[in-house]
Amino acid sequence: MDSFDLDIAIFGGGIAGLWTLARLRRAGYRVALFERRALGGVQSIASQGIIHGGTKYALTGRLTGSAMAIGEMPGIWRAALAGDGEVDLRTVRVLAPQQYLWSTGSLASGMAGFFAGKVMQSRMQALPAGGFPPPFDDPRFRGSVYRLDEPVLDARSLAEALATQYGEACGLVPASLAVERLPRGWRLVSPETGERRVAALVLAAGHGNAALLGQLGQDGPAMQTRPLHMIMVRGALPPLYAHCLGASANPRLTVTSYPMDDGRVVWYLGGQVAEEGVGRSPAAQIAAGRDELATLLPWMSFPDTEWATFAVDRAEVATGGGRRPDDAFVGETDGLFTCWPTKLAFAPRVARLVAGGLQRQGIGPQAGGVPDLGLARPPVARLPWDEVETWN
Description:
Layout: E1 6-11, H1 15-26, E2 31-35, H2 43-46, H3 65-70, H4 73-81, E3 94-96, E4 99-103, H5 109-116, H6 118-121, E5 124-126, E6 144-148, E7 152-153, H7 155-166, E8 170-172, E9 178-181, E10 186-190, E11 194-203, H8 209-215, E12 223-235, E13 242-244, E14 253-259, E15 265-270, H9 272-276, H10 282-296, E16 306-317, E17 329-333, E18 336-340, H11 347-360, H12 384-387
Parallel strand pairs: 1-2, 1-11, 2-8, 4-13, 11-18
Antiparallel strand pairs: 3-7, 4-6, 5-6, 9-10, 10-11, 12-15, 12-16, 13-14, 14-15, 17-18
């Protein structure tokens, strides 16, 4: 039997990588996680923290592949938040226990009938006109509001919770680290770590997976990126966690909120405005965001607010026509797993798929314990609005 210093080496400290680390540690594997920048990664920390249950993917009036694949995720996350899951997330800050979906007018009868059907009743509930939450309780609002049973989490708090529990197995990857294929397993070498023999590698580095695959001499799986130009508004704003119904399966606007210590609230704006704003300058994107809020929330005013934007690439497995993948992706070859979760909510699914792949390949726990990497621990990533130097 081959002798390994590590059972598994994970590259990438986003939430999918950290959740995979946690699951494999609980299964008895000796696992090390290598991260170049900060735990929480790039895409995870820039996400809106939404634990999707698939409702927004059913907005065309039918249950899509995405809606069905992600449907079980909120239950898995809720169990973890209660301390009853495979990962203990009891210390994670839940920004909102549910979200809302609103329309600016009457829903089309066919879509309204779909939302009222048995399939969707467990996922969303229509609210009576007298029970709308702010800011839709204003008498000038004309439209419909649905409650979605999908929580919104503080992405940094989530990264902190996992780093606290599993940070001892995480190290800042040295630039000199070389990875070589062995007849069975892999060899990791650097002056900082010495030589480590590893049974399997897990690539969970998001956008960085393509470069890692190239360094390992692999020509796939192929990666695609779908960029976003997110908008941030900071000021005396009411907390809002809602999607505005658009003409497609993607919401026209998605708003999540982050209460700051000084009493102000940051609105983080995604949806179509973020996708369509990729080619715009920050100033033009801010103008587009102002126009969108004026159109969709015309009874509100935004005095004394500050604005900024944030660009991020969503890295995913390549698909025909560049469409969004329906599911998380874990590609596996001999001793190598390449992961793109597609959505924050899919992190547990990535971990499950990796664990299943290890079993299929006959890679079981051998080494045990917590590895001493001899490396500095990565810090926890900062939220996008904490990275902004100049607000407009």
